[in-house]
Amino acid sequence: MDRRTGTSLARLGLTGPDAHAMLRELGWWDGDVPAPGCEEIMWALARSPDQGLALRAVERLSATPQWAAVDRALRTDRGLRGRLFATLGASAPLGDHLVTHPDRWSLLADTPERRDPPPDLARRTANLLRAVGADPDAPPPGTAGGARATLTGPEAVDALRIAYRDELLGLASADLAAVGDPALPVMEVDDVAAQLADLAEAALSASLAVAAAEQDPPDELRLAIIGMGKCGGRELNYVSDVDVVFVAEPGGELTGAAAKLAARVMRVAGEACFEVDANLRPEGRNGTLVRTLDGHVTYYRRWAKTWEFQALLKARPIAGDRDLGTAYVDALSPMVWQASARDDFVAEVQAMRTRVVENIPSDQRERELKLGRGGLRDVEFAVQLLQLVHGRTDETLHSGNTLAALAALSGRGYVGRDDGANLAASYRFLRLLEHRLQLQKLRRTHLLPAADDTDALRWLARASRIRPDGRRDVVGVLMAEWQRNARRVTRLHEKLFYRPLLAAVSRLAGEEADAVLSPDAAKARLKALGWASPEGALGHLRALTGGVSRAASIQRALLPVLLDELSHSPDPDRGLLAYRRVSEALAATPWYLRLLRDEGAVAQRLMTLLGTSALVPDLLQRAPEVLRMLATSSGLQSPELTRDPAEVAMALSTTVARQATPEAAVASARSYRRHEMLRIACADLLGVLEVDKVCAALNSVNEAVLSATLDAVLRGEPERKAAVAVIGMGRLGGGESSYGSDADVMYVCAPAEGVDDHTAAKWATRVVERVRRLLDSPSPDPALTVDADLRPEGRSGPMVRTLASYREYYARWSEVWETQALLRARPIAGDRALGREFTALIDPLRYPADGISASSVAEIRRIKSRIDAERLPRGADRSTHTKLGHGGLADVEWTVQLLQLQHAGDLPELRTTSTLDGLREAVEAGLISGEDAGELEEGWRTATNARNAIMLVKGKPGDQLPRSGRELVAVAAALGYPAGGDPGEFLDDYRRITRRARHVVERVFYGFTS
């Protein structure tokens, strides 16, 4: 050791100003060097996780009468040195306990008892029963004639607290021994957890003995305490609530006595040792604290939810009447192993896991050892899920212990051996960190220190036996190991359920051959994981992974993660079928699988899209390049996904203009539209575009396709006999197209010089009819249906009119509904000058200077009422019909249009074809309150969003929301609701929003007063 004091103490980690003085006072330091015989003491102190904390505790201990014996033992007892300094530097509360009870130092000494096997449950129970004055040789507390304490009240609580801390001190010192001296034995974390569970059992038995002495229950009353959670699984933490369920016999008049006894057990144990949590009982905290065995069985048969059976997986008798406890487990265990056959089994389990993660504060998620991504709960969740799926037919999986169950799953081929071993290793590492964090202050925590708290991280690393590796200090090694294990848990969790399935269908050799499931087991797993057709899913997997091609090899590597992502989507079966079809269609595309393999975000987003939408895979097979856009930004705010509609229209027009024939031009335009529809759909489903921007983008591309097609047809005409303008109507004119919208239009022409009106109109009709046929002709690309039924006289009227013809018609025969329809008229293609002339012609009609008469208002209201009554499809639900339902699109749009007809003549700001713009201008003009406008806007957005979602999910237009089933789940997911959540929440929100909008419509449009 260095002869200079400062350097020596610095090497020991003792850099505080008082360290030298304390060491001299203890007699361990002499001048500049350790005192004779104290070199090993100093090195043991140097290995303590916190040398300063350990030294201060020793200084306090030196003031006790037992110090002389401790000091002598430290000079000769290597085990005592390692255990004492490691414990004092790892846990301040245990140091306090030792200073308060200095005679307990012998619990850390290297005695013959310590060299024996660690205390078993019987020895610990006897120690704690003796502490409260109960006879350990008597029948167990809670049984007829069971042991009762002689100490009661605060005296019993104090005695039990001290005895419990003594046992904890002995166990913790054995756990930490190798930290203080690497030559001492290392306790595995699962052995520590099992002994902590034994200690909790012993404490509950002692608490029951105290409660029985205080309550004096009748001899015939039997009470069993069932361990749940980590205690039930014999994997308890140093500081944890102990989850229990109470069962008592007989019932009847003794139920009240049993409840009082159980409540007192919880209070004694809570004051002396740990919190006792009985909230896993039937009906939770609102349920009866104690039930009879029949009462428990009845509840679980009739009312229990899936998560309650999952919780019972760890149930075991831990205190009280063992025969009654065993009967409880025997009665309920068969129900546990049938839980995976319940409807929506996996969805319920996954939803509970999701809710837990969502409740973690955002600033703590990256530091959560237990609940965060790649944390302990991911391992426990995966193991329990596989147990419940395969435990129905395989009793070897019936274990409440996570590591034992994982070993059984691996041994039986349900999990690959390497995967199982790696998962177990990561679980042990994370549990070790958790144990050390809880020992520090004996507080329940699962949170790693912040990244900038290097002192706390250094302490944790030293307490966890982490050493520097030559390139990094202990903090760097700790962080690297934690991140590596968290990533490994995440990766294995994603593929754990599916890798053996792939082995089952692709007959792989080598490392995966140990995890080949039987066909029945493979189907059972797929069914439990949410696939409605396991046989069909296995067929898709065979097709994707069969053979020895490079593509099959990549698919085998990709599919565990992809299938996990799909299982969280609304319709995994459809998603897997879509993935197979897309993969087969893009088999010759060299970058497709490479992109999915190398860009994890692309694979995740693609599965979300395929498992939610029927429209996306149909579009994707002929527009695969859109997949690249999913990788351009981790935040999804990529310029490619959210392109400017004007830029898109310009690019489309330029591309189409290069084509030599109208047919080639239209094929190019429709292909471009497919690409754009897919891009917009992806951005919509991934939450990048708001609904008004979705509509604007769809509208822009539809306009561009119409314009480019008309231009291409006109270029192919040998002689132009008229100028033609296309007037957008309806949602197209309003700039509010949805995925399934037709292109509502009217046509106007102006004869060329020397051409009469009739000839011009006939020629223009032939041109626009050709445009319509080209856009609606059979093609792999989606058709754009052009609908001109809003023209004067409807289907019976001429397809194309001149300005003069329109002027005459509107002057002589126009009806109020036609005037209303013109509110959305806007030139969108063809001759722009002619379009402006048409606009000038209709403006006086749709924006009358004096507004409209009371009779016209009444007529509009009458027409609307008739539409509401007659056009709603038979069997439709008016509360969830997005177009004609209460508070839906028609309600909001007609309300805005009525305000425009009444006031736009005086208010030029109201002269817009957009519903939302018109609504905002109406607020500015004081025609409607901001609150009412807000309700209408929210109703319009909600209905439009829902209508788009129906098209995205079903692949075909629809106005009626699904009432139930996977389609409703998918629609809700497309609108941002959790895929595993209750879709009824979405329906409730939709009805509430549209109901409020309807109330405004009734007042503003219909003039009703409340």
From TrEMBL:
Domain of life: Bacteria
Annotated region (Adenylyl transferase), positions in chain: 509-1010
Native species: Pseudonocardia parietis
Chain intervals for the UniProt region annotation (Adenylyl removase): 1-501
EC number(s) from the headed UniProt entry: 2.7.7.89, 2.7.7.42
PANTHER family (alphabetical): BIFUNCTIONAL GLUTAMINE SYNTHETASE ADENYLYLTRANSFERASE_ADENYLYL-REMOVING ENZYME, GLUTAMINE SYNTHETASE ADENYLYLTRANSFERASE
Entry function: Involved in the regulation of glutamine synthetase GlnA, a key enzyme in the process to assimilate ammonia. When cellular nitrogen levels are high, the C-terminal adenylyl transferase (AT) inactivates GlnA by covalent transfer of an adenylyl group from ATP to specific tyrosine residue of GlnA, thus reducing its activity. Conversely, when nitrogen levels are low, the N-terminal adenylyl removase (AR) activates GlnA by removing the adenylyl group by phosphorolysis, increasing its activity.
Keyword Phosphoprotein applies: no
One function term, GO molecular function aspect: [glutamate-ammonia-ligase] adenylyltransferase activity
Name this polypeptide is given: Bifunctional glutamine synthetase adenylyltransferase/adenylyl-removing enzyme
Xref: InterPro entries: GlnE (IPR023057), GlnE_rpt_dom (IPR005190), NT_sf (IPR043519), PII_UdlTrfase/GS_AdlTrfase (IPR013546)
Domain PII-uridylyltransferase/Glutamine-synthetase adenylyltransferase: 351-497, 863-1005
Swiss-Prot/TrEMBL keywords: ATP-binding, Magnesium, Multifunctional enzyme, Nucleotide-binding, Nucleotidyltransferase, Transferase
Family: Belongs to the GlnE family.
Catalytic activity annotation: [glutamine synthetase]-L-tyrosine + ATP = [glutamine synthetase]-O(4)-(5'-adenylyl)-L-tyrosine + diphosphate; [glutamine synthetase]-O(4)-(5'-adenylyl)-L-tyrosine + phosphate = [glutamine synthetase]-L-tyrosine + ADP
Cofactor: Mg(2+)
Domain Glutamate-ammonia ligase adenylyltransferase repeated: 155-327, 604-839
Top-level EC class as recorded in UniProt: transferase
